[in-house]
Structure formats: structure tokens, C-alpha cells
Amino acid sequence: MELNNATALVTGGAHRIGKGIATSLARKGTNLVLHYGRSEDAAVKTRVELQDMGVEVELVQIDLTDSVAIREKISGVLDSFDLQLVVNSAATFVKRGFAETTPGDLDLSLDVNIKAPFLINQLSLATLQQHEDALIVNIGDLSGLDPWKGYSAHGLSKAGLIHLTKVLAREIAPIRVNAIVPGPILPPPHMEETDPIWNEMIDNIPLKRSGSPSDIGNAVVYLAESDYVTGTVMRVDGGEGLVGPKNH
Description:
There is one protein chain. By secondary structure, this protein is an alpha/beta fold. It has one domain (7-236): Rossmann fold (3-Layer(aba) Sandwich). Helices cover 44% and strands 14% of the residues. The protein has a seven-stranded parallel sheet with strand order 3-2-1-4-5-6-7, with helices on both faces. α3 runs parallel beside α4. The termini are far apart.
């Protein structure tokens, strides 16, 4: 895919990994539709930063637990923009053990982490099919590959997203569909960088350091520019997958 002057939708693009992905794409000249949920101030700030890089940036607010809103807002995006790339980065992170997980926890995890990407990918299909080099990237999680203790709903939803990636790579080819599984890039929302648990996680992995959102952004760029890669689950995790989960 030629990223210069292409248009990408990035969900959860206002901050954290989503912002890192949007920034890496903007450096390649990609115009962006950035989705945000509640982080309007961060989204506006990110839009200004990316526009200063010389690309067009539009914001779209969607509650990803609302299927009707997803359909209405994404249909509006598709009426206005010719998407070649869809990146499903938005996620919720429910930390709760199996016995304590409520129906609400399960609904939230499944709605945001698997149902919303499913619907967004489905709605975008007809537009993506107009491009020989279209791409979908789903941002997974190590909890979807390894059994993390205390994150049952979250891990289940991310495992579903990873499986969806493989299903779509077969079913909607030649549109390419890949997943990226980040390792310790940023502490989860309930944890600070100074938290001993976070530091122990970093010490446990082979590279002995955390990554940055740009590492995930660069991986998205790689997948966009490498037109013979599909159905893959790319770990960008500093080697965490080699040693297994710890303190999760």
C-alpha cells in the first residue's frame, strides 16, 4: 500500500497506542479519521498535532458499546472518506477475576473489544473492496494468547479478536487482515509506571525495557507496506511471549 495520501480510520486514536499508530501513519502522509469515545480534549489536541504534520484529520465520536451508533457514524465516515486502511485499536481493559466478573463486565469487554471491531470491519468491507491493497489491522493483546489470571472477560474478548483476524484473512481476501499483539508498551490504566508490578513485568522480559506507542505504529506501517502478509498475528512485545505471563 502506498500510504502517502491514503486514508485510514484509527479507533481509539486520541491517546496511548492509538495515537502512536496515527502518528506513525501521519509521518507517511496518511490522512486520518480518528475515532474517540470520551476523550474529546485529547482527540482535539491529537488532531492539531497531526495536522501540523501536513495531513488531513477528521474526528468521529462513537460509543463503541452502542451498535446503532456504530452503524450510523461509520456509515457517515464511509460516505465522506475513501478508506484504504482500518485499524481497530480502541479497547477496554476490565481487570477482574473470573468469580467476580459481572454480566456488565462481560458485556463491556465483548462489546468494545470484539463486537465493535466486527461491525466496523463489516461496514467498511464494501469500501475496502474497491482497493487492491486494502488492509485491516486489529490490535490484540497478550491476554488473548496466554491465560492471564484475573482478566477473564478481557482475555476472552481479545482471543475472539485474534480469531476474527484469521477468519477474515481467509474470508475477505484479497483484503489483507492482520493482528498486532503489543507487549508492555504502556502501563494499563489502573497502573502507574512506578508501580512495582509494572517494573517486575519489564524485568521479566528478554529486552528488559518497555516499548513505546511508536513501536506499534511502525508495525502498522510495516503491515501496510508489505503486501504479501495476511492472517498473521505479530507480537511486538520485547520477547514477553517467550517467557510467558507474569504478574497478570
